[in-house]
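Lecture notes, unit on protein representations.

Consider one protein chain, 309 amino acids long.
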Amino acid sequence: MAVALTAFIVWRSDPSAVFSAAGQARASWLAVAVGLVAFDRALMAYRWVVLVRVLEPAERLPLRVILRVFFISTFVGTFLPVSVGGDAVRAYGLSRARVGGAASVASVLMDRLLGVVSLLIVTVAGLAVARELLRELALFAAVALVAVACAIATAAIYSERVAAAGARLLGAVPIAPARRVSAQLAGAVRAYALRHGALANVLAGSIAVQLLRIVQAYALGRSLGLVAPFWVYFAFVPIILLVMLLPITIYGLGTSQLAFAALFARADVPSSEAVALSLLFVGLGLVGNLPGAFLYATGARRTPSEATG
């Protein structure tokens, strides 16, 4: 589906024009974008290390083990539905490093939640710059839905009343093992409620990651010679990132091309150049996953005991 949708959008935008634009990208600006994505990945890794180290079973887990799990998951997640596949691989990898399954999943859920909250914050800031987008009912409804979901998830962590309601719901699960696992996971997530400093640290890092991605897209746009000002990227890229979070294609292929073409058309960017920008943006993400590919290739056969020893 991802390949078919991408191929359709490229075809509709004139393949020769798309690949001509991408092929003429200036190397200097591409190098800037690659440097920014390296910083992006380092910040993302730091963010998850903070969350993992909050967990009692993982306080003494070697840093190299956490980083190996993180970077390998970014690589393997390239071939799985975006925002779900990599998270599952990361939770599984951490659990193999002798961290409990519930704690492992909780760290990934918190990382994802704070990532989405940070993206929502940056999206709202972007919409304040491009207020005409708020008149788009579908976009307004989507952002509002994400905001409500984030509010409910946050309340489940910090509100005793919401947590109690959640516990009652979990108690109604008919299958005993599922009920037990759900209760363990809820307890692991709730353990973050008292870690205000760590969560504020991770949220700040997450906002920085979103801003870095905007600047990455701007650098790629400059490499293509696009004349769109920075505020266009500030307004549009967070929305595109929200679209790319939808777990319906692999690595956001297809959905990202569609979103880039639709939004940048508002800034009078030709479809072929917007699609070329989207392909470079996805490609840049793949470059950021290369360290994980190296670690996977050199350590795929290591056992959990070897990894933690």
